[in-house]
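User: Structure please.
Assistant: Input sequence and predicted structure:
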Amino acid sequence: MIIHRATMPTTSGENDSMTVLPRQLTRLTDATLADGTKVDIEITGDTVTAVVPAGTRGAADADSVLNLDGFLVLPAPAEPHAHLDKALSWDLIDPPMGDLVLAIESWKAYSAEMTTASIADRARQQALAMLSNGTTAIRCHVDILHGDDPMRGVRALVQVRQELAGLLDLELVALAGPTAPDALVHEAIDLGVDLVGGAPHLADDPDGDLRRLLAIAAARGVGVDMHTDESLHGPVTMRTLTEVVRDWPATQPVTAGHCVRLGTLEPEELDEIVAEIVRSDVGIVTLPITNLYLQGWEHPVSTPRGLTAVRALLDAGVRLGAGADNVRDPFNPVGRSDALETASLLVTAGHLTLDEAYAAVSTGARSVMSLPAAGPVVGARAELLAVRCVNLSDVVANASADRYVIHAGRLVAHSEVTRHIAVPAAAPQNQNLPLPTPSPTASILETR
């Protein structure tokens, strides 16, 4: 697979406009929409300004035109819940496999030795891997660390956000554990973190810790994104969250991630809490790959899936996003940095439709992140993913790596796939079909 990613401009004399990225685009031609329509898409700056039948517009500057014949164009994915500061540390730590408590212990021991530079290196690598697969916006929870320099992770992620400006949107959440002093949360905000976060379910007094963090956010006039009720048993803090933030202004968005406990409630209690979520307009983020891994180790028989109540939430009109959460760290040893993996898991483990699953990792995620609407729609932000495939089921099922990624109207990543496949020597069963030309291998560009 050949991957082209946006880099800093060079003076190498390279004239191939397909490999010099980022590249401003004004028109996408012969693109296929999710409903099968073939269109040309006009882009002005960072906005889609026209979607017309393919071939009905006049000539345009060739350097700003991208032909997408054979590609499906979709709203670009957004990642509403990442941990870039933890990403890609599994091999470095070599932790034991297990539940949330074991993962936390492994991470705490390793994080004591991390430097700002090492955190930034892994975070940058992970963010670019996600960009190459189509994700153009990321919300990252960054730990307030233990030790003499608890802001190491915050400084690293602020640095990476500056480095990647123009290539993707990066939001930062201060992840304050139950023992993190209020002063450190304020310091993280002063350094440039956008939102207050935490994991109150880990505190001795979950309700009290949640109220503490919400009070800090209210005092600073920022939104919150909480790890919420990330367990199969125990208290349900969602009631407190919805109560406290009910009258918060839209400028202070509220998000709750994981929400595993909702998936274990009886229907009557679940309906009551979901109604409160709707009333307070709390965005919910489901994280299938990590919760499938972390939850249920204590249940060797009829192991729970550990997902939140995605069907009840969607049916009630809750804003639902979905993300990968952890990638190759103590909280999840696997992950492909690809939103299509998350969408596929929502179909198989969450029983969502293909349309619902892809919406959760794209338009739904952007809504939870308070980002402008995006996609191949007039007036929307030109945040687009083009995948070589025939329809949405092909996109989610096969996740072709043959992709173009567009952020703010600019081509920022392009991957090409070449396969070498042996030609079968046996004659076709249908004798009326022509025999293949004998060849030890055949090189094909993945076209399906």
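The first helix runs from residue 90 to 93.
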